[in-house]
Design goal:
Number of domains: 1
Mean pLDDT: 80
Number of helices: 1
Shape: globular
Helix content: 10-25%
Strand order of the largest sheet: 1-6-3-2
Number of strands: 7
Length: 129
């Protein structure tokens, strides 16, 4: 007995739209260096800052930054928002299950934004609201 599979046109449209959004909407890769960055004074510098940016290829921008937080016990999550020619890097510091240490230091972070139009952007970093 043959089974016939009927695919709804609406289902196909959702799959195509999902594929297009996934492949063409800018996405963020985010990495945190768990070690303290000794070259940045966490008490004498802003809570976060941009260290540099470069194009990895024609549609992927790599941005290096730092975030001042506790030496251990905190988890940092990151994302981005694009507003015209501005990229706002967002970060959130979440207390880990082991508690937060009394030590305070700078951690280097890396944002990699793919599927992005190659042009000059002003880049900012802010704590997520």
């Amino acid at each position: 007995m043959k089974k016939i599979i009927f695919i709804n046109i609406g289902t196909i449209a959702l799959i195509v739209i999902g594929f297009l959004l996934f492949n063409f909407y800018p996405r963020t890769g985010f990495v945190v260096d768990k070690n303290c960055e000794l070259d940045i004074d966490p008490y004498g510098s802003p809570k976060a800052g941009i260290l540099g940016q470069s194009w990895k290829n024609d549609d992927t921008l790599e941005i290096k930054a730092y975030i001042n937080t506790y030496c251990s016990g905190a988890k940092i999550e990151g994302n981005h928002v694009i507003e015209n020619d501005n990229i706002v890097l967002e970060y959130e510091i979440i207390q880990g299950t082991m508690g937060i240490s009394e030590c305070y230091c700078a951690h280097k972070v890396g944002y990699e934004i793919s599927s992005l139009e190659k042009k000059d952007y002003s880049v900012f970093i802010n704590k997520k609201k």
